[in-house]
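It is worth pausing here to work through a concrete case rather than discussing structure prediction in the abstract. The textbook approach is simple: state the sequence, then state the predicted structure, then interpret. We follow exactly that order.
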Amino acid sequence: MERLIAEASEEGEEKCSICLPDIPGGAKTFELVAKFCYGVKLELTASNVVYLRCAAELLEMTEEYGEGNLITQTETFLNQVVLRNWKDSLRALQTCDDIISYADELNITKRCIESLAMKVSTDPNLFGWPIMEHGGPMQSPGGSVLWNGISTGARPRNSSSDWWYEDASTLSLPLYKGLIAVMESRGIRQEIIAGSLTFYAKKYLPGLNRHQGASDSNSNARPTPVTLGAPPSEEDQKLLLEEIDRLLPIQKGLVPTKFLFGLLRTAMILRASPSCISNFEKRIGMQLDQATLEDLLMPNFSYSMETLYNVDCVQRILEHFLTMDQITGGASPCSVDDGQIIGSPSLTPFTMVAKLIDGYLAEVAPDVNLKLPKFQALAASVPDYARPLDDGLYRAIDIYLKSHPWLSESDREQLCRLMDCQKLSLEACTHAAQNERLPLRIVVQVLFFEQLQLRTSIAGCFLVSDNLDGSRQLRSGFAGSAEGGWVSAVRENQVLKVGMDNMRMRVSELEKECSNMRQEIEMLGRVKGSSTWGNVSKKFGFKLKSQMCSAQEGSVRNQNNGSGKIEKVKDRQGKHKKNTSPDG
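Step two, the predicted structure:
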């Protein structure tokens, strides 16, 4: 100040006017500095010490001009009081935002961040908070914390690993980024850092809270952010989203899958960079087996609005899941027996994803704008060994055929080739055999494999019955008297016989249908000049042995064709003959 006044006096002006526009903290801080110069005692706090330290440095208030000058006093207060306490360090760091260039030059920002990072990685009870006693801090009758018997006015804090999330979320994005970077360098666990990033994102990205809902399993385990004031602008939210992408560790299971889907939706709405969207898709692909059907149903935010849901995004996420499995070694194809997977337990994520994709296909199938190639590509992306049964895929295909009745016969056959008729359950086979939307070739295949399944089931029942009879004889020989057991065995035998009779009736009906279909197909072959059964069977896409339908052929030819399923198939065959007769 003396130098500035001397320089102004040398210019010979009558009035000496000095302008100090760059005082850190403005006029309020300069007033405090002036009071200090006139001997007024200052009250240093965490809220003003950073301003005073930077102003003292600018005004060169060193020991050369007076012992115990302002620089020395503010430095001593910073090191011995502020940096030893969590709340004071946090408050001092927040004030650095306004004068970041001065604070960075004096390393105040760095020292505050280092202090906070050290306290996060250490027991928080050792830094400005009461030590836990008997499972909790000592409290006054009013509930405040006691420190050496004196009420501090503070409330007891939770000493879990997420105790600092809310405080850190009050920092601006540049300061928060610096804090996270220092924490990573100090080796703080990735899941703790990911939890803080999740808390910070939920606080400043309003769109995330709309998609979380009550289904978030971690809502009770971690504090819920409270957003006060006006939400950030779209540009600020976009910048924050891209920074979250850079800071969030790429590791499976660190954050909930629902949260990642929320980030992805927000990124699409805000038109974030393609690399940001791609990174979120990769993270979701790593843990796709933890997703739900609700997560996958993302609306299409593109301007074209070709489809109601973003099918292309789900396709990319599924490809990332399959790619990650190949990188990590993955699961090899295994056999499927009676709907049960036989093989490595590592196939469980695959079966979960396959079920998820089949459910997603059933949800998007009613969309009339969904093109057949997109539907086929997504359905075919799931490996065959991931589906123990194709019932879910059949349901999706049936819904798609119902919603797209204009598909040609060749397109319908091409679509139905996605499912394996041998992997349909008996209930699905029964439905498919009566489904008029399926091509005739697929219906014949379904009937064929349904008959095979029924015969296999009956053979298994006979085997079980023989084993039961043998075990009862052994029990009767050893026990001698067990009247109650005998009654229950008789009941079991009766139930088993009823089931076997039902199966025999079903097999008989199927054989009648097969015999009648064979006669119709032979008549069709004679009209076309081909009397051999082999040529016709090749046309239907599989090889049938004549022995499959010859078991009761003689007894069936004298009976009436009274089955509802046969009438539907015959009607469709009649239409086929009318269409082909001009060619013959």
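Step three, interpretation. The beta strands are 146-147, 150-151, 335-337, 340-342. The two ends are 112 Å apart (CA to CA).
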